[in-house]
Amino acid sequence: MRNRPEDAPLPYYEDFSPGHGDLPPRAWRPASDAARLSLDGTWDFRLSDTAEGADTAFATAEDFRPDAAAGWHPLAVPGHWVLQGHGAPAYTNVRYPFPVDPPRVPTENPTGDHRRVFDLPEEWPEDGESVLRFDGVESCARVWLNGRELGVFQGSRLPHEFAVGGLLRRAGNVLAVRVHQWSAGSYLEDQDMWWLPGIFREVNLLHRPAGAVEDHFVHAGFDHATGEGVLRVESSPAGRVLVPELGLDLATGEEARVPVEPWTAETPRLYTGELVTEGERVELRIGFRTVAIEDGLFKVNGRRVLFRGVNRHEFHPERGRALDLATMREDVLLMKRNNINAVRTSHYPPHPAFLQLCDELGLWVVDECDLETHGFCDFEDWRGNPVADERFTPALVDRARRMVERDKNHPSVVVWSLGNECGAGEGLGAMSRWIRERDPERAVHYENDHTSRDSDFYSRMYAPHAEVELIGRREEEALEDPELDAHRRSSPFLLCEYAHAMGNGPGGLAEYQRLFREHERCQGGFVWEWIDHGFPKTTADGVPYFGYGGDFGEELHDGSFVCDGLLFPDRTPSPGLLEYRKVIEPVLMEIDPVAGVVEVRNDQDFADLGAFAFEWVYEVEGESVAGGPLTVPPLGPGASARVELPGRPGTDRPGTGVWTVRAALAADTAWAARGHRVAWAQRAVGERAVEPAPTTPGPAPRRTDEGIALGPALFDARDGALLRLGGLAVPHAPRLDVWRAPTDNDLGASWQDDERHAEVWRALGLDRMRHRLDGVALADDGLTVRSRVAPAAAEVGLATTYHWRAVGDELLLTVTVQPEGPWRSTLPKVGLRLGLPAAYGTVTWFGGGPGEAYPDTRQAAALGRHRATVDALQTPYVRPQENGARADVRWAELAADGAPTLRVTAVDEPFTLTARRWTPEHLDAARHTSDLVPSETVWVHLDHAHHGMGSQSCGPGPLPEYHLLPREFRFAVRLAAR
Ligand code: IPT
């Protein structure tokens, strides 16, 4: 550390300004005929603890050699050095991981010196200019080429370019970049994610021939009244615009009107063209569409749009935010295949190639600026907030400008978002004014200033259903200022974040979707968030798991809050994604088995149903009886029709009959193959959906030397516990269970005012219930075991009676639960827990599946016959918690090689089935998946009721109808070992 005189100006990395020396921002282009040299690859790298800990000879000295002995190592660029063995990633959500004193940053400021030597390719032109382009560097860079300093910049996820033509040599160019992890810019980049410094996007050298395109702006509107596209391309310098497919050859600045197919996320029609100037040909991908706020609605091409969106951070478990093209493509394909039609680029402009994929494959994009100052919310009235500090305003406007200029030619981008969670301030106004002036053809979004003064939307995050409904009716509470209130009340409504997908959940998606369909003002939302940001680690014994905040030596961190996505870190879809996919299906179908019809509604905004083929299937007890294609007219958007089903196929197969209708892609598309399922509906018609309790009396229990014998079973004479059923010795007899390993949503977020359920449950002791035996009674109608289940130190309890009867080779177990004392909390669940030997590793069931389902997350579960191993039934939430329940089960069989199969049949009502190799207590104690060690027992849960999931890990808890309140419960199952 060198001494700095007291009165010296602050260094560039503590400067409020965005930097100096670089060129004005301009449009990103998919392709051009100008030469380009990628500088990606292996660079030399050295890490220092402080910003000025090492001298700058690496950048300026002609004879410098990056010696291993002097701490130089190879480093992959693009990449984050903390993911390549130098330092460590760190996670905080709201809090800045350094003292808050803008624009100052800590002396401990990890600084990476990057150096790369390159030659120009043979064919690199001698004439013209050359530009050095950085697509993303976190958080502040100082750049030298061939010993000459080019400038400095801040603004991590934004492009920065320098003119370098005069400095280039044919061979042996030395590019040196000093990157500081912390800068004044860090105060503007307090997004909820890992802090990952480095040159994490490409570095390119771009040739700029004389007369090359400096910048261009494609204006491609769609006049929905005439069906014409309206094209005008601004360019400097001027040139010509060619769109052969439309027969267009016009001058830049000139307007053309031609009949076109419009661009929408559902029909992403792009026209390829070219912009030709004297020195360059630049590819154009033109999508004709017009965005408007009209009649209080956000419209594209004259129609209201419903966003079925997600918030997407850039994340890859090995590469952090240094995403490759294949991963970006995978994200877009996964979104499309899961019926998602919109993405908010939380909370920074993504890699530009991602937007190109959105153009091509069709997603509405809310492009968000690289801005968040959330950490200031912890101080009184957001004291010190950079968006309310005019010294930061130039940097804010610079960020808005870099985003808009870079991304302005993407048809998929329909909304500019100023940033996330910055409270309110004039700096936001300055950004919004700059954007509106430069691009009046898109809408502007900002959420965190609830007056909506700088936004075309009334936008909220995590608003509960009831409030969304109120807003949908334009009946929200008024703002004090009548003018602002009038503006906000006439604005369309968005949930820029909702349904916090952390761990098990989110619950309540279907109910939100209903509100979006009912109220035209509610134009949908963006689930928080797309992917879990978990980094792979291994235990000392070599067991892999995903790490989260606190696993990397951070002194301050926010734990597993960084794992709250619809995808697991390795991009495996979580049950939450499957649920969302079902809830946002583009076709709604409702089967009326009595009338023999299915009501089909096209729930898309633009396309007709022509892309889909429909089919029907009739199954009995999960086995197909008949099926075939279903002819559905190509209904327009919003239209519906009643379509006749064929007559119910005759069959003598006994069991529950189920109609299923499905819509699938009729032909291959760019994002999925023909046959890919987009929607389905089901309806059971069964003669015996669930068996009623048998009424015929069975044999009476009797005491024997071994215990109490009842039909096929033997019970312990002292406590009435089931010991054996037929040939199956039961190691752990069924008994009442109310505990589940709290989910992130059960735990709730620390800032929640509402009751956090798991906290109440644990305080009450529901995780340590004791079972007191009150009596074992034998009677003609069976064996009755009475008990009281209650935790220490509590006056509440559950009087529980198990009544056993023998029916043929089966046992009928009826359980009654009567709450005692002043219960004031909900229950996690009510059900039975029993243990089988570890060999019981396969489960077959007729019920909901194939995946897990809870009361408010059960839309995606289809009634059918499913089969899985016990291991495959587990959902590997990054932080272990309750998971894996199969709902709506009519019967289930647990099988082991060479041992009798246990068959459980639902009586009166279906049950929820869970089987795992550890107990809820083990699950509760585990911090990572690697802590879950299989035991000698397969624990089987036959649950009668569960508390809902909700979304309280950040938003509202389960809706009241999904609260599991103590009351009298009575439920029954039949057990057989065959
Ligand atoms: C909201 C943030 O905008 C988002 O970045 C993320 O942190 C999310 O919450 C939670 O995962 S802010 C929240 C405190 C309302």
From TrEMBL:
GO terms under biological process: lactose catabolic process
Reaction(s) catalysed (UniProt annotation): Hydrolysis of terminal non-reducing beta-D-galactose residues in beta-D-galactosides
Pfam families noted in UniProt: Bgal_small_N, Glyco_hydro_2_C, Glyco_hydro_2_N, LacZ_4
Position of the signal peptide: none
Keyword annotations from UniProtKB, A to Z: Glycosidase, Hydrolase
Region called Disordered, residue ranges: 1-27
EC numbers for this chain: 3.2.1.23
Family statement drawn from the similarity comment of this UniProt entry: Belongs to the glycosyl hydrolase 2 family.
Name of the molecule in the record: Beta-galactosidase
